[in-house]
Design a protein that fits this description.
Helix content is 21%, strand content 24%. The protein contains 17 helices and 50 strands. Strands 28-27-26-25-21-20-19-30-29 form a 9-stranded parallel beta sheet. Strands 3-4-5-6-18-15-14-12 form an 8-stranded antiparallel beta sheet. A 6-stranded antiparallel beta sheet has the order 31-32-33-38-35-36. The chain is globular.
């Protein structure tokens, strides 16, 4: 029988707590007798001036010294030294008192029954006023609304004052409504975080130790962290914050492994000791690029949070979301978790790209990449500031210092990988729809396009070509002539692409469906948490999902593609539904009720749970749980498909994927998903295209004329004109909707669409060269205006116009019934691409005429653009003579280039199987310089050259010192014809 204690237990336990505090204080005082302590205070960002080891005074720069200090002790102000004799007498008396208290406390403690409650963080010590109401620090009211960092970010929760104070946070109702986004519950300036207790130099930079003294309100805090700061390149910094005691999941994509520290970094890295903060500045200007001291750092098992200030409100990237190109920082949270959903605002979409580009106040730019694939929220607020919230993995991030936007993207792609050079026909015009319903109907569409002379390089089929939606089959009744259709396409220098979904039917008779039977033999499907094959539901009914994190699955996928290619000789593959999409939530048998399915914090995912319309987060894959690698599924399938096509065709693979992740551009392109036939969708396709260009996936486009719903003639004409300038140009339509291929409309509309597509084909040499630069140097193909005019803030929000490369400005009509369009022209000289008429802008908006059969194109001064006579396929067009267009600056200067190869061989640049020609114009002379020659260049001639902006009519023109015929128009356009110059030889064209 256990007796009950009659004395006040709480008081005794309080004494025990006091004893330990006094004991720690005693040890601290002993330490001060031997060493002189340095006082620390929390520094504001403006007070930070130390870097690296300068964090600590000379006596404290070693790990050994810092380990001697209990990290839970406050660092007290420096006090006067006293004599050892007085100190020992004082401490001796203190020891006697404390020993008595300790003895009494220990006796009572031994009689106390053990606690049966599970381990949990201690409740926060919240001060109360005498009348019992909540009492919060006065500093709470001093925090401006824009700088309030949300302490209660859970969605769908009405936060009360009591709930907020339970987290030891400030609670103030915002002056504006709750819908404004201003958090009512936010962190105090003194909110506890980690402390930096040591920092030492390494060969690559710094390594530090972080300790947390107080538990947070999320379970399983990681109390001790290791921080690595790696000075990888002069313009690239990497920081990893990990758990040194236990290996955590890290994203399995290849990134550079650097062995040598940058010799002359363009950044400085400063540290705040307590609460821990990391500050990165641009050395040249002092601009703060990263400042994590503005809000507490969280690092729990399933919740990581880090905030930073931003140098301006101009932030881009953070895909995949439907929004303007320039993100809104007015309390805007972007959720990332791959999801099958038609594009809509404020929703996590198909891909995940935790990278942003930020413009600084002086026109410089930097980038930030969070290498994490777990579900996350990225919260923007008007301070301006940004908060990352992830539910797993580690903090592993890069900062890229540009300093111009284009350089930032190139540096980012140095890490994740530059995009592949596409096979030439990928840049032609593509036709597709879900619902051709037969191969004969598909074939008739192709024949009609030929009859009207409308260019088409690729014909596609959606899932209706399959036998009951089964992968690697075709319907031998309705699509019986599919093999012959593909052969006919090849005879006409055209190509065929088919769709594949990852879901593999498990409902067929044993032995009748090789993909599932063989997959079961090889054990390549995703398993549930019990180790059984997870079963979901997609188009063919109940399905299993290949685990593309398993190398064995790649081989199985290749074997399936190879077997089907022997029946239908497809040229490329469209991989869809690869988020992965599931018509069920989780699986046929549901998902277990565990911490992976129900994490302490769930980002703002459509559906509210990780399993919503996908597989269970707790599902098992080869390298990790689905919880960690869900958003990598599309990337891993793209890698398997790209590898298989390389082996099957021995040519550059063509893959288009719906779900994407950083490094995807190495393996596939992307389209912007199941859009609608609406004017709004036409307009939002431009910011989507621009965003994916800065994310390293330049082979990008939207479904021309819209996928869902029926289009109108006016909309389809305008969309075809814009779509002619998508890097990936495909008209795609949904089942049972009105036909929308160009041949389906009136003669006037059909002609307008044909002219737009012919215009694209004429620009193929320029477009192909842009993709070469994307592949080699990480450049964009479709380029935001701000990239070329970073000092013109008016360009920062423009996403209704764009450039091809640096020089060709596209200004499409995006509104119904308009025969004009207003475009912004940065300061300088511009030329109408079609006529050569000049336009001088001071940096202004200009009203442009835009009849139904025209899209406005303008050439920037100082450029040389190669074009060709277009034809119905790129194979024919690419053999036509070149026409060069030089748009001269006020000083008569221009430059441009051309990359040329056979268009399909693997790795032509890497194997020196290409030609590269550089064109310059100065002092009334164009010079062609062959910087790299190849046989392919001998097949092409330069037939004509036009010079825009020749101010006076020349008396004569010479080509390689021989007089040549020319014409000159009143709009200052000089044209030299009948040249017949071999591209593989240098030439000069001069005028006087």
């Amino acid at each position: 029988m256990q007796c009950e204690m009659s004395y006040p237990t709480n008081l005794i336990l309080t004494f025990r707590g006091y004893y330990f505090n006094y004991l720690l204080l005693f040890l601290y005082l002993l330490y001060t007798l031997k060493f002189e302590m340095v006082s620390y205070k929390r520094l504001t960002p403006e007070e930070v001036h130390f870097s690296g080891a300068a964090l600590l005074d000379p006596d404290e720069t070693t790990d050994t010294d810092l380990k001697d200090i209990n990290p839970e002790l406050p660092l007290l102000p420096q006090s006067r030294r006293c004599s050892i004799t007085v100190a020992l007498l004082t401490l001796g008396g203190l020891i006697v008192v404390l020993s008595g208290i300790w003895l009494l406390g220990t006796i009572f403690w031994l009689h106390k029954p053990p606690s049966t409650e599970p381990h949990r963080p201690p409740p926060p010590a919240v001060a109360k006023s005498p009348n019992g109401t909540w009492l919060q620090p006065e500093s709470c009211s001093q925090i401006p609304e824009a700088w309030r960092f949300d302490c209660y970010p859970e969605r769908g929760v009405v936060v009360t004052e009591e709930m907020c104070h339970a987290r030891n946070c400030c609670f103030i109702q915002a002056k504006t409504s709750r819908r404004s986004g201003v958090p009512w519950c936010f962190y105090t300036p003194e909110y506890p975080s980690y402390e930096l207790v040591s920092i030492t130099d390494t060969e690559m930079g710094k390594v530090g130790k972080l300790l947390r003294n107080k538990k947070t309100y999320y379970p399983k805090d990681i109390d001790a962290l290791q921080m690595e700061v790696m000075y990888e390149e002069d313009n690239r910094l990497r920081v990893k914050i990990t758990d040194p005691a236990e290996k955590r999941y890290e994203v399995p994509i290849d990134v550079p492994v650097v062995q040598k520290k940058a010799s002359n970094p363009s950044y400085t890295v400063d540290f705040i000791k307590e609460p821990f903060g990391l500050i990165v500045k641009r050395t040249q200007t002092g601009t703060v690029l990263l400042n994590t001291s503005i809000a507490p750092l969280f690092y729990a098992d399933q919740f990581l949070q880090m905030s930073t200030s931003l140098p301006s409100r101009f932030i881009y990237g953070l895909g995949e979301h439907r929004s303007n190109f320039l993100h809104d920082v007015q309390w805007n949270t972007l959720t990332m978790w791959a999801r099958d959903v038609p594009p809509m605002e404020l929703t996590n979409l198909y891909g995940v790209h935790p990278f942003y580009l930020s413009m600084e106040s002086d026109g410089m730019a930097h980038g930030f990449f969070m290498l994490n694939s777990n579900a996350m929220d990225v919260a923007l607020q008007p301070a301006p500031a940004l908060t990352w919230r992830m539910i797993g993995g580690i903090l592993d991030f890069y900062i890229f210092l540009g300093p111009d936007p284009s350089s930032v993207i190139a540096q980012y792609l140095d890490v994740v990988g530059k995009p592949a050079l596409p096979i030439f026909w990928a840049l032609g015009y593509h036709l597709c729809r879900w619902g051709y319903k037969s191969s004969d109907k598909t074939w008739n569409v192709v024949k009609e396009m030929r009859n009207y002379g409308i260019p088409q390089d690729v014909q596609w089929n959606d899932i209706d070509y399959m036998d009951h939606a089964l992968d690697f089959t075709y319907d031998t009744v309705n699509f019986s002539s599919l093999p012959d259709l593909v052969k006919d396409l090849h005879r006409h220098d055209q190509h065929y692409v088919m769709i594949l979904d990852p879901g593999i039917s498990n409902s067929q008779l044993p032995g009748s469906y090789w993909p599932f039977d063989e997959g079961m033999k090889r054990g390549i499907f995703i398993n549930d948490s019990n180790g059984d094959v997870l079963i979901g539901k997609v188009w063919p009914g109940l399905t299993a999902f290949p685990d593309f994190s398993n190398p064995d699955t790649h081989e199985w996928w290749y074997q399936n593609l190879k077997r089907f290619h022997e029946k239908v000789a497809f040229d490329g593959v469209w991989i869809d539904m690869n988020e992965p999409s599931n018509f069920l939530d989780g699986s046929l048998n549901g998902c277990p009720d565990n911490e992976l399915e129900n994490p302490p914090y769930t980002p703002g995912i459509l559906g509210g749970t990780l399993k919503a319309k996908t597989v269970c987060a707790s599902a098992h894959q080869k390298i990790s749980t689905h919880y960690n690698i869900h958003s990598l599924y599309g990337l891993m399938e793209a890698k398997a498909t790209e590898s298989a096509l390389r082996k099957i065709t021995n040519k550059r693979p063509f893959v288009i994927s719906r779900s994407t992740f950083p490094s995807q551009g190495k393996y596939s392109g992307h389209w912007l998903g199941d859009n609608r036939s609406q004017w709004k969708d036409l307009a939002t396709s431009i910011p989507g295209m621009l965003t994916f260009n800065i994310l390293g996936i330049p082979l990008i486009g939207a479904d021309i004329c819209g996928f869902g719903g029926s289009t109108t003639e006016d909309l389809c004409v305008r969309w075809t004109q814009l779509g002619a300038f998508y890097p990936f140009s495909r008209n795609h339509n949904s089942i049972d909707e009105q036909d929308q291929e160009p041949t389906a409309f009136s003669p006037a509309a059909r002609t307008a669409m044909k002219e737009a597509i012919l215009l694209r084909y004429s620009l193929f040499p320029h477009l192909y060269t842009l993709f070469h630069h994307a592949h080699i140097s990480g450049h964009t193909v479709a380029t935001p205006l701000l990239f070329q005019f970073p000092n013109d803030e008016k360009t920062y929000g423009i996403d209704k116009q764009f450039l091809w490369g640096k020089s060709l400005l596209v200004t499409p009509v995006l509104e119904e019934g308009r025969d004009y369009v207003v475009g912004y022209f940065p300061k300088g000289l511009w030329y109408d691409f079609h006529t050569g008429d000049s336009l001088v802008s001071s940096g202004e908006e200009i009203n442009l005429q835009a009849p139904k059969d025209k899209i406005n194109l303008h050439l920037r001064e100082g450029s040389v653009i190669p074009t060709q006579s277009p034809n119905t396929t790129l194979w024919v067009s690419s053999g036509q003579p070149l026409h060069l267009i030089a748009s001269l600056s006020e000083d008569g200067l221009a430059k441009g280039d051309l990359f040329w190869d056979d268009g399909e061989t693997l790795d032509t640049y890497e194997k020196d199987q290409y030609a590269y020609i550089y064109f310059t114009v100065k002092q009334n002379t164009m010079t062609s310089e062959v910087l790299h020659n190849h046989e392919e260049a001998t097949y092409i001639t330069v037939e004509t050259v036009s010079f825009y902006g020749v101010k006076t009519e020349p008396e004569n023109v010479t080509v390689n010192s021989q007089e040549a015929a020319f014409s000159y128009r009143n709009n200052q356009v000089l044209t030299v014809t009948d040249l017949g110059l071999n591209l593989s030889h240098n030439f000069t064209i001069s005028w006087m």
